Amino acid sequence: MRYLILLIILAALPKIATAQTAKTTQLLTQGWRFHQADKEGWMSSTVPGCVHTDLLAAGQIKDPLYRDNELQQQWIGKADWDYETTFAVTPEMLRRSYLELVFKGLDTYADVTLNDATILHADNMFREWRVSVKPQLRAGENHLRIHFRSPLTEVAGLPAKYGFPLYATNDEQAMAVVGDKGPVLSPYTRKAPYQYGWDWGPRFVTAGIWQPVQLEVWDEARISDFHVVQRSLSDDVAQLGFVVEYDGGTAVQNPAATLLIEALGPDGKPAGPRLEQAVTLQPNRHELAVQMRLDKPQRWFPAGYGAQALYTFTARLVQGGKPLDTAKKRIGLRTLELRRERDQYGKSFEFVVNGIPVFAKGANWIPADIFPTRVTNQRYRHLLQSARDCNMNMVRVWGGGIYENDYFYDTCDELGLLVWQDFMFACTFYPGNPEFMDNVRQEATHQVRRLRDHPSLAIWVGNNENEVAWQDWNIPSIIGAAHQKEVWGDYLRMFNDVLPAVLRAHDPSRLYWPSSPSANYEDLASRQSNGDMHYWAVWAGTEPLTAYEKQVPRFMSEYGFQSFPELKSVQQFAAPADYDIASPVMREHQRSQAGNPRLLEYLRRDFREPKDFSSFLYVSQVLQAHAIKIAAEHLRRNRPRVMGSMYWQLDDCWGAASWSSIDYYGRWKALQYYAKRFYADVLLSPHEEGDNVRFYVVSDRLAAVPARLQVRLLDFTGHLLFEQTQALQIELLTSKAYLDISRKKLLKGHNPKQVVLSCAVQAADGTTLAANTHYFAAPKEMMMPRPGITTTWKPLTDSTYQLTLQSQTLARDVNMTLAEGDGFFEDNYFDLLPGQPKTVTFRSPSPTSAAQLKQQLRLQSLADAF
Q1: Cα(655)–Cα(590) distance, rounded to whole angstroms?
Q2: What confidence tens digit (pLDDT) does each residue in 771-813 have?
Q3: Burial grade of 708 (CB within 10 A; 0-12, 13-18, 19 or more)
């Protein structure tokens, strides 16, 4: 009888637990160790992480990014690696209905065993893997092992299998690059291409557990997805739909449950009605749909156009008054479309948010570290806040990197940075076999469902430059006639069928664009009139900087120019013996073989020879900033024909010569400071056209502004040679030339090599809305005196100061830095006009004194560099 009673009690336990116990999640990030497969000697590991960072922490390798250490570390990518840990499972946990291991990200070819039983074979860095493991678990300690196979070994036989001569035929060739167009390993493996051979990054092949691992334990149901659908939006009401997807496992013991939906407004207070709906749980996956009406909704706007109002919605599955599972989503309410309408120029390409045509001002985003798990939330915040602080409203997540983590997109939501999101395909052509296509489908489904509720997400784009590669890079002839139809057919299946089908199923509200650049297969002969454009004839094609002004696309999604980081940053990856761009170490940190000669060629066109290495670094940054300024101002002047400027690139992944405006160590280059000015909401842009100078004012403001335009010509000692003022009404959301002055009238016979044109737009209250300078000769032709700059420090707090600079002669591109330590100047690389003081705010990371700052301050201008 006692035995029978015990059986009855044990049989009832799962049902009792189901009614009272919520899903629990146990993070498995502790106690990991690793070693090279088939070798002795286990070492501690950090999860999430990768084998390179683990080897570095264990003292087995030197810093891969220092000097040329990476050259001695190529063996790492050719080896297999084992990771293992143990974790405890209690008898109570084993009595629960479902126990699942969830691998948020494995890089990349992984064989997973649990207590010596094989549970998973993974082959995609960008997918989440979920495995039911209750049969393999036991009470007490459980042993989890992950064996990572080398991607180089894994793909070695695939080129022969697919038969395309474009691709590599062995592991050595798999590390090579086809021309300058990208790594040939990328077609075969769903792995971040930038990590193993792009022409601007280190050539590492990583492996490891790059996202968290966790054990999820649940009973009747778990919420597998929570999606908020904005059905309609007006100033009076928002109609929302909530789709709660749940997994009911293989059987449901207690089907009766309740779905609760609660909303918090941007102020953190309850918003809208509390929804409660009775549901009947069923086995397997099912969707529950609920609707909500929000009165007087607050909208989310891109940066510069309004506030970033964010609502938080919580969904709960409840039984017996206690939750089975909970999910949260934070969203912004806005309308967004990509308007493409026929006009006199071709077909428009403009993002319209809440009815406002937004000129996209921004930069391309690459992964911020060659090892992505080293990118902290603080670093993400610094980089994205820097973009926002420089008046950007969009970043393009480039298709040769990674789908960024949740914190990245959450931060973009908070800062009002629209996200142009490429799928992770770049510069090559991919296999079309069913297994590969299905793998991509699973990847895209996971990423789309993960990201679709972010208000910042503006567009999904199939790939980076694959379409233009087919048209312009001679790819068809490289592939050969026998395979051209097959390769192009695979391309169309991937980017016209598979990815669009995923979006139709999971994110139908957003536009899909097949490639960047593309005209969506319309007007392929004209990239000026339709779609988006990448332009590299300046830099890669060595066209003059003025060639930027011959390009008038509908949207410029990529263009760029290279520079080196400043000396403080170079000191972090090189030794003093390396301080020459011709040194082996500096050449290693210049991935493009043509990079240094090309940079020197451009520099010598407009500048004199820098006097030393430090001056060369400085001038390279000024050159880069000048180049992108020419392009960005030109694109903005041509609004509304052009509605986007996205230079390449915001950040850098490893510390080197690059196209970034912020270097790997977080320091703003000259370009970042320039961007703050040429992306301002009001831009004054003087431009020589024929015999005249035209003064354009570009406004991104939502209201007209009465103002006054002042134009002054000065010599280098401050003598006023010409002055003219004009009242104007700055029109909203437009670019317009408000004044023309003939060059002859401006110069009045004065030497164009010895004058500066200073212009400003002031509001009615005297506030300067925009200012700019213009020169009539290249810097190397100008006879600039060496300025004697005086400085005054005024404390605001113990770590914040105002620095006032003044010079009796012109000082171009004044750069301020500290001899030791770091701080942040809110403005830098500016022209200091003679006799006109300039005040800049400086923030120190720690308390300091004016005397210390005065001693540490180092100033440099163009006249000092030669």
Answers
A1: 10
A2: 999 999 999 999 899 999 999 999 999 999 999 999 999 999 9
A3: middle
Q: Which CATH class is domain 336-678?
A: alpha beta
Query: Considering only the top CATH level, what class is 220-331?
Result: mainly beta
Domain residue extents for the chain: 17-215, 220-331, 336-678, 682-781, 790-864
Contacts of residue 16, Cβ cutoff 8 Å, sequence gap at least 6: none
Q: pLDDT tier at 170 (50, 70, 90 boundaries)?
A: very low
What secondary structure letter does DSSP report for 359?
P
Say if domain 17-215 classifies as CATH 3.40.50.300: no
Distance CA 191, CA 400 (A): 9
- Measure the CA–CA gap between 596 and 287, rounded to whole angstroms: 57
Query: What is the per-residue pLDDT across 445-471, written as a single tens digit (0 to 9) for each?
Result: 999 999 999 999 999 999 999 999 998
Per-residue confidence band for 482, with pLDDT thresholds at 50, 70 and 90: confident
Architecture label for domain 790-864:
Sandwich (2.60)
336-678 and 790-864 in the same fold: no
What does pTM read for this prediction? 0.95
| Rounded Cα distance, 174 and 157, in Å | 11
Q: Is 152's pLDDT higher than 90?
A: no
Whether omega before 597 lies within 30 degrees of 0, making that bond cis, reads: no
Q: Where are the beta strands (DSSP E) in 108-180?
A: 109-114, 117-123, 129-132, 140-149
AA identity, residue 125: M
Quote the CA–CA distance of 276 and 290 in Å, as a whole number.
Answer: 9
| Burial status of residue 438 (CB atoms within 10 A of its CB: 0-12, 13-18, 19 or more) | exposed
How many C-beta atoms surround the C-beta of residue 275 within 10 A?
Answer: 16
CATH class of 682-781: mainly beta
How big is the CA angle at 221 (ends 218 and 227), to the nearest 5 degrees? 115
In 3-state terms, what secondary structure has residue 631?
A: helix
pLDDT at residue 192, as a whole number: 87
The answer to whether the CB of 597 falls within 8 A of the CB of 588 is: no
